[in-house]
Write a structure and sequence with these properties.
By secondary structure, this protein is an alpha+beta fold. The protein contains 20 helices and 23 strands. Strands 12, 13, 14, 15, 16, 17, 18, 19, 20, 21 and 22 form an eleven-stranded mixed sheet that branches. Strand 3 and strand 4 form a beta hairpin. The chain is elongated, with a radius of gyration of 35 Å. About 1% of the residues have low confidence.
Length: 787
């Protein structure tokens, strides 16, 4: 009972003291609250991802090919109609009910009629914006409703459903749907990406945890003076420590309340923002109950532990407070133990992430990284103290800064501890990120210097339809030229006496296009309609190519049941004797050597290629100076073929999983950096408030404002410089160990290391400079008043 009364007394003292006490408690609560809010956001991410997966699964569909599934009153044809605008994907579907009771996609109250559009709220806003004129031309249909939240992965998703009445059941992009809903599924990450995600989580959250610990020590000098008053009233040292624990508990509980309030405020506004392609509904951000309880317990517990540790170097007597920080030598041995233990945990994992059936314990990796980075935080106060003991002389501003650091090196080091740990983690993460991205970024072998787009779509009308499409594309402003081709398989039997005779049928591909198009695929020289060319692949084809006089069965493949154009028999075509063998070129669309038969339209019967859906490909050359030409191209092709895929040539293609991890990293890093910057500003302001009487006394003695401003900047610059040195060493060490875990050679890009350190140092100095107005206010003579 006595202990409880002393804890309650400490809690009352934390909130006492009028405006000054409330300000002190408010700064502590704000600092702790920012960290708690960040932790609550972090532990809400798994539920947010699960909610998005559940909604994506709910709009999945149970269906089959229209040829295999009969139409009923309760079925519906569904066709893809995806597009893009401004670099953002737009999910689209075409709906055509078979009867009066079709299945409804989630988020729709009814199926839109032919020519009617139901859009997501984000797409509705985009269509209404002035910059979406080209998209309005593409989706030029009346909007009759919006998709509800249950039918969208997030509030910022661009999606639509279009009612139609002309879906082709032979179209491979069309499915007959009997119901919506599938099992939630998220593709698992491979061991390397899993390791990368673990590293990202640890590196982003560790500075937040350190900041929460530092925030609990706000107002430490004023607390020590209050405890000295308690000692004067008869309290012993143990009672003083329990009262200090009560103060820490009160501040941390208040911080928990502030953090919960900040989290709820952010949660209520989260659907209005999108960060690096991610968006969520407020209901998605739901912290795990067990983890939230753990945060609620650990934050107050950590505040008590930090408060007790901070009293180790303070002697609180009835007549005053004595600090043992000036000349006392800090022990080094225990500060180097965490990095050594962390390295001992990580080094045995060398090559573990790339071994067959690899399994890398995320807890072992997390513990190792935490120990190494914690070593940066532990070594920084020692390094600052060891340096400033040897510094003498210099300008007045420099002397004021150094004297303050000599008196309390720990306080100044705590201000930059979080940023130093964040920089160390960023350096190690950057080394790993650069190395692993090689395995997830594929070289497309395309030449983006040619400034072309490419499209894949299916046509039924054969070459005549292709020619009409090319004419429409050439009419688009900004399109310089277009080359399209049809492709279809063919099989043939080797002639008796040939080396391949008796080994079954062989297959090849026929590429149907005009002469300019075929010149992109092979070195054909002279060309006229009716010519046929046989591509001679230098390294040898995957199967023998047919020679002159070989009879091909079109639209069949060896082993297929006779799929035909019309009737039950395949269409036969004999390779003419005039066929010429030509050397291949790199396909501008596929970036690889073409092989097979290159055929001009006049060499085949007039109706060949029509009557069934066939894949077509187009290469479209664009005017570099026209920034809107790709959107106009998408509009023309989408109006003709809503399921067409249109892309722009790029040199590299990134794995979707790696891209998602990269976006998550940028989003998390943005939040962490913002928290660290704001927390640093609060820390500097709190330190200035603690020294307001000293600052006012210096001003009364004639110290100029610029001198004091420079002393504050120097006071931040020295710990920052040492922190960046330690961060660079620890970061490169972490990066080297992580690279060995994924069995990659160790390479340090020193230019990036120096750049990260320089940006972090400038950010700290900039935030410190923002506190200068507070400094000048505290230097007023009113700061000399006392009770």
């Amino acid at each position: 009972m006595r202990v409880l009364r002393e804890l309650v007394l400490g809690a009352r003292m934390a909130l006492a003291g009028g405006v000054s006490g409330w300000t002190r408690a408010g700064l502590t609560a704000l600092g702790v609250g920012l960290g708690v809010a960040m932790l609550l956001l972090a532990i809400s991410v798994p539920h947010a991802l699960a909610a998005q997966d559940a909604r994506a699964a709910a709009r999945g569909f149970a269906g089959d090919s229209p040829a295999r599934l009969s139409a009923t009153d309760a079925t519906m044809l569904l066709g893809r109609a995806d597009t893009a605008f401004g670099g953002r994907p737009i999910l689209g579907h075409r709906l055509q009910p078979d009867g009066t009771h079709p299945p409804l996609p989630p988020g729709l109250a009814s199926v839109p009629g032919p020519g009617q559009l139901v859009v997501s709220p984000a797409l509705a806003r985009l269509l209404a914006s002035p910059r979406a004129a080209l998209l309005r031309e593409r989706l030029d249909f009346p909007v009759v409703g919006t998709i509800g939240p249950q039918g969208l992965s997030g509030p910022a998703e661009l999606a639509f459903y279009l009612g139609v009445d002309d879906l082709d059941e032979d179209d491979p992009t069309v499915t007959r749907v009997v119901a919506f809903g599938s099992t939630p599924w998220r593709q698992g990450l491979d061991p390397v990406l899993t390791l990368l995600v673990v590293v990202i989580v640890v590196i982003l959250l560790l500075p937040v945890a350190l900041f929460v610990g530092a925030a609990t020590r706000f107002g430490g000098e004023a607390r020590d003076r209050r405890l000295a008053g308690v000692r004067l009233l008869g309290a012993d040292a143990r009672m003083t420590r329990r009262i200090a624990a009560g103060e820490a508990l009160a501040s941390s509980v208040l911080g928990l309340a502030v953090g919960a309030g900040l989290f709820l405020a952010v949660r209520s506004l989260v659907d209005r923002a999108e960060m690096f392609g991610y968006s969520a509904y407020p209901s998605d951000l739901r912290p795990d109950a067990m983890l939230a309880a753990l945060v609620a317990v650990l934050v107050p517990l950590a505040s008590v532990v930090v408060a007790q540790l901070s009293l180790r170097r303070v002697v609180i007597e009835p007549l005053g407070v004595t600090r043992r920080g000036g000349d006392a030598r800090r022990r080094l041995w225990w500060r180097v133990l965490p990095p050594l233990l962390g390295a001992a945990l990580l080094l045995p994992l060398r090559g573990a992430a790339v071994r067959p059936a690899a399994h890398v314990s995320p807890w072992q990796v997390s513990a190792g990284i935490v120990l190494i980075l914690t070593g940066v935080a532990a070594l920084l106060p020692w390094a600052v103290g060891a340096l400033v003991r040897r510094l003498r002389g210099g300008p007045l501003a420099w002397q004021l800064a150094i004297r303050r650091l000599q008196t309390d090196a720990s306080g100044s080091a705590r201000a930059v501890m979080g940023i130093a740990v964040a920089v160390a983690g960023a350096i190690g993460l950057q080394m790993m990120f650069v190395s692993v991205q090689i395995g997830y970024v594929r070289d497309t072998a395309l030449d983006p210097s040619l400034a072309y787009g490419y499209a894949y779509f299916d046509v039924r009308g054969g070459w005549s339809e292709i020619a009409a499409t090319d004419a429409a594309v050439r009419a688009v402003p900004g399109v310089m030229d277009v080359h399209s081709r049809l492709s279809f398989p063919a099989s043939y039997s080797p002639e008796p006496g040939s080396p391949q005779y008796g080994h079954g049928d062989f297959g090849t591909y026929i590429w149907l296009g005009d002469c300019p198009t075929l010149r992109q695929l092979a070195v054909i020289g002279s060309c006229a309609d009716g010519d046929v060319f046989l591509v001679d692949v230098v390294n040898g084809p995957a199967f023998p190519t047919p020679g002159p006089g070989t009879t091909l069965r079109l639209d069949t493949w060896p082993g297929d049941s006779a799929a035909t154009q019309t009737g039950d028999q395949p269409v036969s075509w004999t390779v003419p004797a005039s066929v010429r063998t030509v050397a291949p070129k790199n396909d501008p669309m596929m970036g690889q050597l073409s092989e097979g038969l290159l055929v001009t339209p006049g060499a085949l019967p007039a109706d060949t290629g029509s009557g069934r859906m066939r894949p077509a490909q187009s290469t479209v050359y664009l005017d570099r100076a026209d920034s809107d030409v790709d959107e106009r191209l998408r509009t023309v092709l989408w109006r003709r073929y809503p399921a067409a895929f249109v892309g722009i040539a790029t040199e590299h293609e990134e794995s979707s999983q790696f891209a998602a991890v990269r976006r998550a990293l940028f989003a998390g890093a943005s939040l962490t950096i913002g928290l660290i910057g704001l927390g640093l500003l609060i820390t500097v302001v709190d330190q200035l408030r603690e020294r307001r009487r000293v600052l006012a006394s210096l001003a009364a003695l004639g110290t100029r404002r610029p001198t004091m401003a420079w002393s504050i900047l120097w006071q931040a610059a020295v710990p920052v410089a040492l922190g960046m040195v330690l961060a660079g060493a620890a970061g490169t060490g972490v990066g080297a160990i992580l690279l060995r875990i994924i069995d990659q050679p160790v390479h340090v890009d020193w230019q990036i290391v120096w750049l990260v350190c320089a940006v972090a140092a400038l950010a700290v100095l900039a935030v410190t400079a923002l506190s200068i107005p507070v400094l000048w206010r505290l230097m007023r003579s009113g700061g000399l008043r006392t009770e």
